[in-house]
């Protein structure tokens, strides 16, 4: 049988014959079927409608449940929010109470601060007046005495010191008072329309005497014969006096100072320029020059660091600006800019009339007296530091205040060769150059502070023996302790009594001399060559049993003696040889040996050679010529001459006597 062969299919259908016997039945059945079909269709439609109702109800239920959930969530959130708000409101109420209480406290504190500020200002005002009264009592009789032509020059010099420094103190009092008024907002601007050219001419005239005496070209330059502008005469006067006096301080004799006035009509500004050919400033100094109590590093003049800070404050009160352009060793240029339009000032700041000034003469005295040179030329007062050394002890004074330099020198130069330095670094170097017998040193110095100078000198073997007295304006116990920690021998606070200073110096030098005499005895020693292993008991190495107390001094003495001992045989041995081996200068060596051993270096070498020769004469059977050679003498004849001058007998006589005693 073949696969996939098509087979014929036969379907047998049941049939029936419709006749009169079954037609009715068939008809009824057909009708019934039709009715049932209609019921089915109707029920299907109802089912569809029910499904729609179900779906809509289901959606409604979902929506209702969602709304209920949302309502519940919102209710919870509202409840939490209300609870949170209630807590926040309670906290705010508490904070508001705290703020109210703090506000009340601030009002009270503000009132107290205002009262304290007022009290401080009143205190400074009273202190200012308390200073001015004794200053007046100092200045008045001083000026009367200066008019006395019978006084000797040295007395007049002292009186000029008093007058100059009294005016300086008065200027500082006035400046500090002005600063406090600025700080407490008590300085009020009162501008009026005045001739600024005439105003500047009047101020520049105040400096004409000092300019003439110091040969300084001081001029006022402007293109205007007169010019009206709104300004406060008292404030502008203080500004210009401060800047001009500052220029005179830092300008050397023979220099120039210019006050220039220009008008910028386009910018509605008036500009001042104060130029000088002084020492100038570095960039770093220019950044801080207007800071209160800032002092630039310079040795020309000491400064309080108040004037320029006050000037800047006054310029700003006057609605102006101040700028500085300076170059080291070339000069400085202070530029001031002020508004021309009177509308730049408020109604309260504008005055209806010119306010009369009565302080010009007072300011002139205060600022220019301090700048006046002394009757004697400074070059004649200060000692020439290169002059030959004398028998006087040498004192090094390191002090940046010129007046105090001169005062100390005039008081001490009768007993000391006084050398003066105004810069800390220069003073430190000078101490090594001259090896002084005593140092007076200020603490606050340009270049290098006094405490560091003291510590470094005390650590160096060349200068450790030098007594150092610190002079300072820092008088507290802590600062005093800092001075003593730097190994200073004495600490004297300014202002000091010259009698106390002199007595301190005298006592220190006396004690130093006694210690030196006790611990050094160059004339009474025996020499023992180092090659002798078992020397007699009555012979000792020079100074080993009577050495200085200080470890550094003992080290120096030991090194010096060792160099001399090892070189006595060398006829070319000299002071220069010792200096090269100890790496110090001749001046340093002479002063150090003199201070520690109380003898001249050359004398020490000769004595050491004679002591060595005496040892050979007493203990060795050597010809006189060999002994002379072994002790560094150039010839036997010269050796005999020196030996006789030191011992009173010739080498042969000394040898015969010593061997005869033996």
From TrEMBL:
It comes from Arachidicoccus ginsenosidivorans. This is histidine kinase. The chain crosses the membrane at residues 60-80. Residues 558-657 form the HTH araC/xylS-type domain. InterPro entries: CheY-like_superfamily, HATPase_C_sf, HATPase_dom, His_kinase_dom, HisK_dim/P_dom, HisK_dim/P_sf, Homeodomain-like_sf, HTH_AraC. SUPFAM superfamilies: ATPase domain of HSP90 chaperone/DNA topoisomerase II/histidine kinase, CheY-like, Homeodomain-like, Homodimeric domain of signal transducing histidine kinase. Gene3D superfamilies: 1.10.287.130, 3.40.50.2300, Histidine kinase-like ATPase, C-terminal domain, Homeodomain-like. It comes from the Bacteria. The modification 4-aspartylphosphate is found at residue 442. GO terms for molecular function: ATP binding; DNA-binding transcription factor activity; phosphorelay sensor kinase activity; sequence-specific DNA binding. Keywords: ATP-binding, DNA-binding, Kinase, Membrane, Nucleotide-binding, Phosphoprotein, Transcription, Transcription regulation, Transferase, Transmembrane, Transmembrane helix, Two-component regulatory system. It catalyses: ATP + protein L-histidine = ADP + protein N-phospho-L-histidine. Residues 394-509 form the Response regulatory domain. The keyword Transmembrane applies. Residues 126-342 form the Histidine kinase domain. Its EC number is 2.7.13.3.
């Amino acid at each position: 049988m073949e696969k996939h062969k098509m087979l014929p299919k036969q379907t047998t259908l049941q049939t029936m014959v419709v006749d009169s016997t079954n037609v009715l039945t068939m008809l009824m059945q057909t009708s019934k079927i039709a009715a049932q079909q209609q019921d089915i269709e109707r029920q299907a439609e109802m089912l569809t409608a029910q499904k729609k109702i179900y779906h809509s109800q289901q959606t409604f239920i979902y929506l209702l449940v969602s709304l209920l959930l949302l309502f519940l969530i919102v209710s919870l959130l509202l409840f939490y929010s209300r609870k949170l708000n209630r807590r926040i409101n309670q906290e705010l109420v508490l904070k508001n109470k705290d703020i109210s209480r703090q506000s009340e406290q601030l009002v009270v504190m503000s009132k107290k601060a205002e009262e304290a500020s007022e009290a401080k200002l009143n205190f400074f005002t009273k202190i200012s007046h308390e200073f001015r009264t004794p200053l007046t009592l100092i200045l008045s009789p001083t000026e009367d005495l200066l008019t006395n032509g019978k006084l000797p020059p040295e007395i007049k010099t002292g009186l000029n010191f008093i007058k100059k420094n009294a005016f300086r103190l008065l200027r500082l009092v006035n400046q500090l008072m002005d600063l406090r008024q600025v700080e407490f907002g008590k300085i009020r601007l009162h501008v009026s329309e005045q001739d600024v050219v005439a105003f500047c001419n009047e101020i520049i005239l105040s400096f004409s005497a000092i300019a003439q005496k110091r040969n300084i070209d001081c001029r006022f330059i402007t293109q205007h014969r007169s010019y009206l502008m709104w300004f406060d005469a008292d404030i502008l006067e203080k500004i210009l006096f401060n800047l001009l006096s500052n220029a005179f301080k830092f300008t050397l004799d023979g220099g120039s100072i210019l006050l220039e006035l220009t008008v910028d009509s386009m910018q509605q500004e008036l500009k001042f320029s104060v130029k000088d050919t002084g020492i100038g400033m570095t960039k770093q100094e220019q950044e801080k020059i207007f800071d209160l109590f800032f002092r630039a590093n310079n040795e020309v003049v000491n400064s309080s660091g108040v004037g320029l800070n006050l000037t800047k404050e006054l310029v700003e009160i006057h609605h102006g600006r101040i700028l500085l352009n300076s170059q080291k060793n070339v000069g400085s240029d202070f530029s001031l800019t002020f508004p021309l339009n009177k509308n730049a000032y408020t109604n309260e700041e504008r005055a209806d009339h010119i306010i009369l000034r009565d302080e010009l003469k007072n300011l002139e005295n205060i600022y220019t007296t301090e700048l006046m040179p002394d009757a004697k030329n400074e070059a004649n007062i200060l000692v020439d530091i290169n002059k030959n050394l004398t028998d006087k002890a040498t004192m090094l004074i390191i002090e940046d205040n010129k007046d105090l330099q001169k005062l100390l020198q005039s008081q001490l130069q009768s007993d000391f060769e006084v050398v003066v330095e105004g810069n800390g670094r220069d003073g430190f170097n000078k101490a090594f150059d001259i090896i002084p017998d005593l140092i007076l040193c200020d603490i606050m110095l340009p270049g290098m502070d006094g405490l560091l100078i003291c510590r470094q000198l005390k650590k160096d073997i060349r200068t450790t023996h030098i007594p150092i007295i610190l002079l300072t304006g820092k008088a507290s116990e802590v600062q005093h302790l800092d001075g003593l920690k730097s190994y200073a021998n004495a600490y004297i606070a300014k202002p000091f009594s010259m009698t106390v200073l002199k007595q301190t110096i005298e006592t220190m030098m006396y004690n130093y001399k006694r210690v030196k005499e006790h611990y050094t005895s160059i004339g009474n020693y025996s020499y023992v060559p180092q090659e002798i292993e078992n020397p007699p008991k009555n012979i000792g190495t020079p100074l080993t049993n009577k050495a200085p107390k200080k470890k550094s001094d003992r080290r120096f003495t030991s090194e010096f003696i060792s160099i001399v001992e090892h070189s006595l045989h060398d006829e070319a041995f000299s002071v220069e040889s010792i200096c090269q081996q100890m790496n110090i200068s001749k001046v340093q060596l002479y002063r150090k040996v003199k201070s520690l051993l109380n003898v001249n270096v050359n004398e020490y070498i000769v004595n050491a050679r004679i002591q060595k020769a005496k040892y050979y004469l007493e203990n060795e059977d050597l010809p006189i010529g060999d002994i002379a050679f072994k002790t560094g003498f150039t010839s036997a004849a010269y050796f005999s001459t020196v030996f006789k001058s030191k011992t009173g007998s010739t080498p042969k006589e000394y040898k015969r006597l010593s061997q005869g005693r033996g």
